[in-house]
Amino acid sequence: MSASLAAFERPRGGASITVFKSGPLFISSKGIGWKSWKKRWFILTRTCLVFFKNDPQRGDEDEVNLSLGGIELNNSGSVVIREDKKLLTVLFPESDGGDFTLKAETSEDLYEWKTALEHALAQAPSDAIQWRDKRTAKSLVVGRPVLLALEDIDGSPSFLEKALRFLEEFGSKAEGILRQCADVEEVDLRVEEYEEGRKTEFGSDEDAHVVGDCVKHVLRELASSPVPASCCTALLEANKIQGKEARMSAMRSAILDKTFFPEPNRRLLQRIVKMMHTISCHAQENRMTPSAVAACMAPLLLRPLLAAGECDFDVNDGDNSAQLLLAAANAANNAQTIITTLVEEYENIFDVNDDENLQRCSNVGSPGTRDDHAQPDDSSSLALDPPQIRNPDTDQLEEQGKGNENPINEVAKGESYGSMGEILSTFWGRSNQVRSMEYSVDSSGEEEVDIQRLEMTKNDLQHRIAKEARGNAILQASLERRKQALHQRRLALEQHFSRLQEVHFTRS
């Protein structure tokens, strides 16, 4: 075994990177259209495991053999094998990344790869300390859930909401806004200043391109996609409809359908598209047309559409890298077209009346809308008391009941923060005006959390059922096409056989 290990550790071709092992393994990935195990050429180093379609050292000079993918390694991984099925699985702690499974051709290859991987993992870099540091210093800006993208937990405008307002007010006329990139260090510094409380507001003298990149950075690091995969699929189908009016109607239906699109996600999308619409209205000054703005923002808003496997695409069977590149290009074009339509037809697709509600919701708790003489108390501020959320006092509920006659005036008078029940109810499409006062008084914060959790579970199940139904429909359609093709093939063979018989009888 020592001789084989020496072979693993021998550098190739004088390269400085140590190759522990290289050779064929089988990989399966439904995400990029493969429906069975595919044989690929793997190369294992100290830091990663990359794979190619063929052995890169034996390929023709004219043949392009790009790397199809790779897996970063760290020393927290462990190797598990299933000898009966020749499966090789590398396990990582949940914090370090996902597991992956490969399949060897023979049992001998299985154990050789196991030994090589164990040696590579032992020498791989450690991410544990960095991960703990990141967990300890949890960001107040990036990595937030969609529910808190526009508002902080106390109801005040979030970093993202403030940045969007700045772009609408001061950045809409900056040439190349959202397209022209700022210095990465300046973006990180601006986020750091906000998190440390040194600069919590955006001034009119700030660099619009830095703020624009801050917006894109926050959207990129959201805990989940602003537009879920189910709605991406619905928008993709709507985009294929011929006729502008019918296409817009289908897109509007997809966006307003809570089965596909939860209320927090819809509000976030509408807020972002509203900012994009404002910028595109100044295209003569900033040279950012709706199509140009969409090209910059579509990959951030429609993540599942560009992530292979999360949406249903018409990708032919096979593993040709050219087909995968073509599918990726088509997905990017579709995403840009969808967002362009949303920006151009913003007032027709979205409910513009919600803009006022969005503004009111995001203004709650902001310095410009508070009463300077109002005394903070537990009934008017949003407070979290784990494991349950406190309810407002009865007096506050009575004031809200009276304020239902003219909610806009109540906000104008400086009502500070709404209760968590109000905010969550607004997000999930429920109105406190519908509830009776007795129900509001008797319901506890813990029950409200349970209700929200059940609704989220219900929506998740509905999304899964809808996705399964679409998958079944696609499979059924594919089966019908294959049956039709086989039937046509059979008819062609019968005709060919008849011609052969005629020729045979003629000759005889």
Automatic annotation (TrEMBL):
Question: Could you tell me which SUPFAM superfamilies the record lists for this protein?
Answer: GTPase activation domain, GAP, PH domain-like
**What Gene Ontology biological process does one annotation of this record name?**
signal transduction
Q: Name one GO molecular function term.
A: GTPase activator activity
Which terms are listed as keywords in the entry?
GTPase activation
Q: Where is the Rho-GAP domain?
A: 148-350
The record's annotation in InterPro entries points to: PH-like_dom_sf, PH_domain, Rho_GAP_Regulators, Rho_GTPase_activation_prot, RhoGAP_dom
Q: Does the keyword Translocase apply?
A: no
Is Cell membrane found in the keyword set?
A: no
Domain PH intervals: 18-122
Q: Region labeled Disordered — which residues?
A: 358-416
Q: PANTHER family attached here? A: RHO GTPASE-ACTIVATING PROTEIN 7
> What's the protein here called?
Uncharacterized protein
